[in-house]
Amino acid sequence: MSFPVPVLFDLLLKRHGPQHWWPARTVTGMMVGAVLVQNTAWTQASKAVDQLEERGLLDFTAICETPDETLWDVIRPAGYFRIKTQRLKALARFMAPWGDIRQVIHPHNQELRLNLLGIHGIGKETADSILCYAAQQPVFVVDAYTKRLFLRLGWVDEKAGYDKMQAIVHETIPMEPHTLGEFHALIVRHAKEHCLKRPRCQNCPVVICPSIPN
Ligand code: SF4
User: Fold this and answer.
1) Which of 15, 46, 58, 105 has the most Cβ atoms closer than 10 angstroms to its Cβ?
2) What is the pTM of this model?
3) How many domains is the chain built from?
4) Residue 107 has what pLDDT?
5) How far apart are alpha carbons 199 and 193 in whole angstroms?
């Protein structure tokens, strides 16, 4: 089966324009935000990132040295604050010797991905978000919105896993960090405006979708 992924990308870009992701001011803020946004909305995660910054804790060494109880209070807006404190500390222990993810980039990207996946609480979506938006590596981030859209387009079935959906994109559009990051951001925007749980198909830009009204 061939997938008109570039057509989908063009339709979304034409409607929504560039999304300027990731919505964080610094690379560290982006990485910390990728953990804090797990199972919550970005608006909540960004409040926690801002509070870390205000307290001078948006720094991997500082996160390592701060007592858990202090971090619980600071990141509370992101929810699951005890679990996320453990995850932030695991990421911080990995990153503290380096400071910046770009210092850790290995010529073989797969190795950095495996290292990130070895950190407590970092799954494929979080690792790939860090790779794409912080490390500027050519990786497409798959999330629940991607699956919902690809299902409705008839490109995958319910059983489709992360790797299969990522491969559909990696095999069809240029392996370039900006393009791949833009595509993920456009899918998120589309899922919030049109392809919601209850889709708003009227005036949807994805004219290749079988559900598009005549
Ligand atoms: S036509 Fe409906 S189901 Fe298809 S992509 Fe648009 S909003 Fe989603």
Assistant:
1) 58
2) 0.94
3) 2
4) 63
5) 9
